[in-house]
Amino acid sequence: MQKHYNNSRMTKSTLTKFKLTTLAASLLLASSTLSAQEEDTRAIAERLVDEHFQNSTLSREEQIEELMWFAKAAEPFRDMDIQTVAEGLTTHVYESEVLAEAFSELTGINLTHNIIGEGDVVDTMQNQMQSGNSIYDGFVNDTDSIGTHIRYGTTINLSEAMENEWADYTLPTLDLDDFIGLQYGTGPDGSIYQLPTQQFANLYWFRHDWFTDPEIMAQFEEIYGYELGVPTNWTAYEDIAKFFSEDVGEIDGTKVYGHMDYGRRDPSLGWRFHDSWLSMAGMGSQGVPFGNPVDDWGIRVNEESQPVGASVSRGGATNSPASVFAMQKAVDWLRDFAPPEAQGMTFGEAGPVPAQGHIAQQIFWYTAFTADMTDPSVAVTDDEGNPLWRMAPSPTGPYWEEGMKVGYQDVGAWTFFDSTPEDRRTAAWLFAQFTVAKTTSLEKLMHGLTPIRESDIFSEQMTEMAPKLGGLVEFYRSPNESNWTPTGTNVPDYPRMAPLWWQNLAPVMSGEVTPQEGLDKLAADLDSTMNRLARANVFDSYAPLLNEEEDPQVWLDREGAPKPKLDDEMPQGTTVPYEEMMEAWMEAGTRQE
């Protein structure tokens, strides 16, 4: 589901605005006959807009109209106690501390938006799916689990619900076409199962001030024979990593490093790899969002969307030459070019390190850290609080082909289960929409920097913020943004299968086993788990149907993934000047306007 910048899109936006204006006009005509209760509700709506939601792509009157709709739709659920849950990102904390309180005051629903650890969210969700007990009335769950939700038959099909039991409880101005990540919560049948409420990408991060220093630039070109710039392939990334770690060594008396990563045996190590590391090297198939028939986990599916294997011997690519190459580079770069302590760090511990000022670049950096990187007190901003760093597309590996996904994007999305009583589920659905409505979404974006709406990304407010955000706004305004995607529908049970990554690849990072050995074990474990689940008959649809094992060479000789080993996995390094790349991004973005 690519974004298109054309007249039909603009017509939809114009139509939506016309509807909003008409609704606002109707409200003004009827305002003289409002009941006392309606007047009280309107007063609350006006105050909420003025106190909390001044930044919006809607006019003040349009915002008030949206809020009045929520208050009226919520009347059957007044005084209910509703519990929803999300992980502890800044965006979700804002939802919990500001939006939940505003929603409760406006609607009379006692809404608590609980903030717990990401792993706890997944465990609790899994418990509710398996037990049939209603633990929370609504979950914010990553769309990485979309393959799980389409198969077990317990997740509410939002498309069907909005046409049926939620027809009167779905915001008329929800404007699904405006969501930038809706495709990631959509099943093979085109039905929406998860509604995005935040998203962020993993991109390349680098010290723009160092990369544009004339002396450093001249030194790099003298040694490596080409210009220092944003690397477009893994060879250039390695050259730059070596350059800063060994050839430069120190800047202003501080030891500097050309790479940052983490390697501790921990569940977060799994994110490092199943969040598209193998795909960035070029392991999977062409096709966005997930790669078809082989996705970014290396899992192949048949034409009926049934997983048939992760191992090369079954037509998968998890343990293919491209994957081995990717893992070897992860090991080498962490050992040779990152701070020594990085080997023992987790995701959370490694995340703040580039802000300390001694890291030159990071190939795989989550934009969720953008807010932390813009704090005027950190070492990577100047005296006026402007970033000394920039973000750009991550370089791709030698197996990557045009038309493949480029990197990973995390999309947290509202998810509901049939084990929750319908009235409680509907009340939670109202809050879910409140957190993504145009009245609230832009203000939430400015707090958490995790966009979900195209209209917000192209707003005047984000244009003004862009210079402080190091390329975030330009990235999301580019049509190329849709090439960064989450885990897809090929993974039949994300909660069960994700831990297999860190359990099998931690020994690779520590040097206990080779990349090939670790990936062979991972692929076999993925296949075993899928086969076991299929035999247990736990899936409502799209159940795995594994291919019989063959000589891996049979599959490597066929066109597409899995791909045979290249004769030259490290071709000439290539870079592009950051400013030149940004011009292309900005030019692409203007198509919206």
UniProtKB/TrEMBL annotation:
Q: Which residues cross the membrane?
A: none
Q: Span of the secretion signal?
A: 1-36
What SUPFAM superfamilies does its record include?
Periplasmic binding protein-like II
Determine the domain of life of the protein's source.
Answer: Bacteria
According to UniProt, the name of this protein is ABC transporter substrate-binding protein
Q: What is its main location?
A: periplasm
Q: What family does this chain come from, according to its entry? A: Belongs to the bacterial solute-binding protein 1 family.
- Keywords, comma-separated and alphabetical: Cell membrane, Lipoprotein, Membrane, Palmitate, Signal
By its UniProt entry, which InterPro entries does this protein fall under? ABC_tp_sb, Bact_solute-bd_prot1, SBP
Q: Where in the cell is it found?
A: Periplasm
Family matches, as Gene3D superfamilies? Periplasmic binding protein-like II
Q: Name the Pfam families for this protein.
A: SBP_bac_1
